[in-house]
């Protein structure tokens, strides 16, 4: 990954760092029961384009054991990312709140009604 154009997201204590090729153009604000409680905004990237470096193993949670594993730092507790459970899925979610705010200034925020219709509004 090109260090001159890459971007790094980190948890609060710095134990987990995520290197991205670029700032997200879009961010998803999801209102499902889990994302609402986590207080996250999601940026989606191809798994192959993301480097997650952890000085310690992350803790994971999978709601009803389905779909994705949510990762969090075991020290500071920040939700860092999610990875799909199905190997055929090629994208992952990065908690955009871990990216410096100035790098998000041009990102469009899409609101997803995952708690109701499942549609974007």
Automatic annotation (TrEMBL):
SUPFAM superfamilies: Mss4-like. It comes from the Bacteria. Pfam families: GFA. The keyword Metal-binding applies. Residues 7-112 form the CENP-V/GFA domain. GO terms for molecular function: carbon-sulfur lyase activity; metal ion binding. Gene3D superfamilies: 2.170.150.70. Keywords: Metal-binding, Zinc. Belongs to the Gfa family. InterPro entries: CENP-V-like, CENP-V/GFA, Mss4-like_sf. This is Glutathione-dependent formaldehyde-activating enzyme.
């Amino acid at each position: 990954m090109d260090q001159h154009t890459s971007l790094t997201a980190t948890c609060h204590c710095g134990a987990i760092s995520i290197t991205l090729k670029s700032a997200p153009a879009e961010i998803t604000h999801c209102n499902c029961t889990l994302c609402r409680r986590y207080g996250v905004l999601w940026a989606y990237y191809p798994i192959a384009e993301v480097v997650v470096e952890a000085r310690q193993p992350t803790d994971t949670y999978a709601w009803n054991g389905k779909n994705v594993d949510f990762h969090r730092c075991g020290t500071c507790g920040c939700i860092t990312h999610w990875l799909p459970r199905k190997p055929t899925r090629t994208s992952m979610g990065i908690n955009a709140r871990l990216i410096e705010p100035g790098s998000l200034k041009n990102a469009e925020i899409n609101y997803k009604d995952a708690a109701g219709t499942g549609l974007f509004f």
